[in-house]
Amino acid sequence: MIISDDLEKLLNILPIEISKTIEKYPNKNQLIEIVMDLGKKPEARFSDHVYYISNKNINWQDINYCIRKLGKFNVDNRTGVKNTLHRISSINNREGQIIGLTYRVGRAVLGNINIIRDLLEIGHSILILGRPGVGKTTAIREIARILADEIGKRVIIIDTSNEIAGDSDIGHFSIGRARRMQVKHPQLQHQVMIEAIENHMPEVIIIDEISTELEAIAARTIAERGVQLIGTAHGNSLENLIRNSTLSDLIGGIQYVTLGDEEARKRGTQKSILERKSFPTFNIVIEIHQLYSWRIHQDVEQNVDRILQGSRPILQDRFINLDNKYIIKYSQYNNNESISNNKSKLHFIKEHSGHFLHELFNKNMNINHKIYLYLHSLSYKETQSCIDNMKLPIILTKTLDNANAILGLRMQTKNTPKLREIAKNKKIPIYVISNETIPQLIKVLKNIINSYDLKKVYKNTHIFDSLKEMRMAILNIVLSKNQTVELLPRIGYIRKYQHILAGYFNLYAISIGKEPFRRLRIYPRSLA
């Protein structure tokens, strides 16, 4: 990794005594911020400690000296240092006089997001969560450069506080070829987001600190127009976002639903439940809890539903080990457990079966077995939008030779005998809809997936069926209701895979009975 911080330019605008003391400090490259409050000792803050720069309290002369070295403060009480990423924020008294300053060190870290590069190349919208100072802005700055320079997309940054690309009309070198739009007033951020779409035809929009309902609505508008969105928000986890009424729309929104008596009994729940309202704005959510350690919700729609149902979301933990190697592990964690106490309770897939089980648990089980769909008399853009929102393993093709299925409007398909003849000769199924509406498109796309032979993904359909049955039993009975469950009798080599699956969920399982009725009994964790 290459780190550029321009620390000298920040030290040059500080009082001479403070500047010289920091210059001599051995760990100055780890400096996060400098705090100067009227009547208090100046502090240099690091990730793990605070260093008092001087025993002398800050006075009015020190504050005024610093203000003269700085540019004009914006309405959000922020300013910057020209041609750097540093940010200076002020604390004012009732009369509007500055009585405190926070100097935030801005760093460009090239190479710090290689651990999630595969997610960027997919093209899904990504939301990054984390507490202040954990590295969200540094991450999206590097994401902007990667997308613009290395992946070759048209990227626009909405830089409300000039924190991503620096306090200058010329963007900092760390954003590469990405373009930057400045915002005159923080309250106009949502308008600039829409303006970027309408005026500049971006493929990717990057926005730091989505914090208001209007910005959340603007983000949904951008996503619905087929533009990849990379954003950040304050919050430690996906659960925080679900509870946040202002920002919950980013992950689909939450609503109360009243079930009928029969449906409530069938689900084993009360009549009033929480459900997700619509498709999430962001397909992927990344939680940054500490430097170079990222927790990823790769299927936000599925994980939000699981959290609302009281189940544990399925996650990826990505981090860099002591040998500077990237490690990816799949895990589950309890919503009520803290991150620090949860490390010993992660349930990892065994290496020899990880790929097999991961594809089974993934909602799109046949992700490596795409369905090629040929469209006849339908909007390519509208259909692609539905496919992207539902995260279906469907690729739209413009040639019949590659197609596994054909989708078209009923009347136009009926009046095209040549198409039907080709489909018949090639044994390609034809699906039709009456009108090109979103509900009909969603319904027919689901039918295509359901009718497609998913069992081709696995050579042995018996293993697939048994593990599918076992997965449903674990999710709906063992984990949800904390009850023991017995599976259907299976032969020995299938029970071997069932034991692997039990280990994935960190559950205790034993084989009981005699052949040919030998079967697995799975115990909840409370009884294991």
Describe this protein's structure.
With 528 residues, the chain is an alpha/beta fold. It folds into 4 domains: 2-106, Beta-Lactamase (2-Layer Sandwich), CATH 3.30.450; 110-310, 3-Layer(aba) Sandwich (Rossmann fold); 371-451, Rossmann fold (3-Layer(aba) Sandwich); 461-523, Ribosomal Protein S8, Chain: A, domain 1 (2-Layer Sandwich). The chain has 18 helices and 26 strands. It has a 9-stranded mixed sheet with strand order 11-10-12-13-9-16-17-18-19, with helices on both faces. A hairpin with a 6-residue loop joins strand 25 and strand 26 (519-523). Helix 6 runs parallel beside helix 7, helix 13 (380-390) packs across helix 16 (438-451) and helix 17 (461-481) packs across helix 18. The longest helix has 21 residues, at 461-481. The chain is globular. Keywords: ATP-binding, Chloroplast, Nucleotide-binding, Plastid.
What's a concise summary of this model?
Keywords: ATP-binding, Chloroplast, Nucleotide-binding, Plastid. This protein is an alpha/beta fold and 528 residues long. Helix 6 packs parallel to helix 7 (213-224), helix 13 (380-390) crosses helix 16 and helix 17 crosses helix 18.
